[in-house]
Amino acid sequence: MIQAYNAPLVKYASKGWLVPLDGYIKKYASRYGLADLNSSAWDGFSYRGHVYGVPNQTNTQILMYRKDLFDKLGLDAPKTYADMMAAAKALRAADAVKYPMAMAWGADDALGDGFHSSLTANGGKWFDRHGAPAFDSAAGVKSLHQMRQMLRYAPPSTLTHANGDVMALMQQGLVGMTTIWASRAGPILDANQSRVADKVGFAPAPAAVPGGPPASGVSQDGFVIPRNSTVDPELLFRLMASTTTAPKVMQKAAPVAIPPRDSLVHDTKGRQPYWPAAEKTTKRGAQPLPKVPYMEPLTKSVVNPYLAKALTGRAESAAALASAARELDATLRSKGYLK
Description:
The protein has 339 residues and is an alpha+beta fold.
């Protein structure tokens, strides 16, 4: 068995590389309490009507902010991008922190996630119903404009930052706020690793526009069984279900992972301080990456360089997105994904 998350699972399943688990799930649902795993987690491991993996954690991007600084300046946790910009301006004016905000927008990978969050929050989409590129839209241009505004309050090296880099900046007390994967909250709250462990607050990811969905992504992690495995797939399934989804295992991992078990998420005794923000973010409409077999790494590898050009002013936003869409369309056709 191998570890996987949404995007690679879709790629592997589309190629017939994975064992469908529907029969095993039905057979062992009662024994391993699989009905307690929420539907969105199962959906993340589904492709074209079949389930191909067993989820063991859910993740989404939430707002983490310096509550001590916000309280001192009389600021509320931002609910929209406009609120974020206003808070960033106030933090800078008060010289309260080195960088008012930080984002994991490394151009090699994470930038695509950042664009995804803004694009979907602005009502845009990556692909049309035929699977062809559709991000070169008004929503795409608006998203890049918003992202460029945020860069004014972020470290100059933002387009090289992975999630771990942003987490480290938060731990060092150098950042006022960030929208980052919830799984990064644990180390930020750990007093042995973080200078601001008792100073951080959590809130749902802000909306790009008032009343809209949160600018965030959703991902599920878990385990799948490759078809070429020489081990009995039923035995492997039982191993996955009895260990990786076991309540005690998930509870132990709670500081750094959101369990997909509803009973654990709603257990007040073991509830982590960042879980409510994550739960609200997903319920308000945060979107996973599209379920197409060419999302990662193909789409990101083609599109990200154009996003970086637009964000650094080396290309106009609409032109950059149009060029990215043309190149991706040609690439998908050359590889047989589109006809």
